[in-house]
Structure formats: C-alpha cells, structure tokens
Amino acid sequence: MSSKRNKSLVGRTRKPLTKALLLPMDRASARERSLSCHLALVACRDGHGNGHLVNELMRAVYLGWYLQRAGYGHQPAEQFKITECAVETTLA
C-alpha cells in the first residue's frame, strides 16, 4: 500500500506559499469569516440550516481547536470533540 502512495507523490511538486498565505489574516478577512460563522449559526438555530451552513459551523469548530492548540484559549480538548459530534449529528 505504501509503495502506491509513494509512486503517486513522486511526480507532484508543492506550490510555494505566497506572502499573503504566510502573513496573519487581515482584519477584513477575519470579519468576513466571523460574520459567515455567525450567520450560519443563526440560520441553523432558526431551523433554516442546510449542508453548506453546517459545514461553516464545522469550520468554526476546527478553527477554534487550532487556535486553542496554538495557545489561545483554555477550553479542554474534550469540549471540541463534543461540539464536533453535535455538528455531525445535526448534519445526519
């Protein structure tokens, strides 16, 4: 199995990251991301959710987890697992 994996990766080269991808997120992008997550949460709470909106909520959960792992916040990892399961159950 690993030999197939290595053969498929031999021909690929990774595109170098641009300067914009290496710098912190700008305020406008952060506000847009925040608004998108907030609107998805409100729509799902009001019973107007769909797969796309639930996906936005899952992105917010993962973003929060990555930020917590980077040293921002003090939520236990178990809380993120519970939230992830709740969002997955909502999608099902």
In terms of DSSP E residues, the strand content is under 5%
Summed over residues and divided by their number, the pLDDT gives a mean of 86
- E-strand count: 0
| Count of alpha/pi helices | 5
User: What's the story with the biggest beta sheet?
Assistant: none
What is the gyration radius calculated from CA atoms? 18 Å
Which of globular, elongated, flat, extended, rod-shaped describes the shape? globular
Helix content: over 70%
Uncertain residue segments: none
What does this entry look like structurally?
- This protein is an all-alpha fold and 92 residues long.
- The protein has a domain of 44 residues.
- 72% of the residues lie in helices and 0% in strands.
- The protein contains five helices and no strands.
- The longest helix is centred in the middle third of the chain and has 19 residues.
- The chain is globular and about 45 Å long.
Summarize this, please?
The protein has 92 residues and is an all-alpha fold.
Any descriptors?
92 residues, mainly alpha, 5 helices, globular
Question: How would the blueprint of this fold be written?
Answer:
Blueprint lengths: L1 H9 L8 H4 L4 H19 L5 H19 L7 H15 L1
Helix pairs in contact: 3-4, 4-5
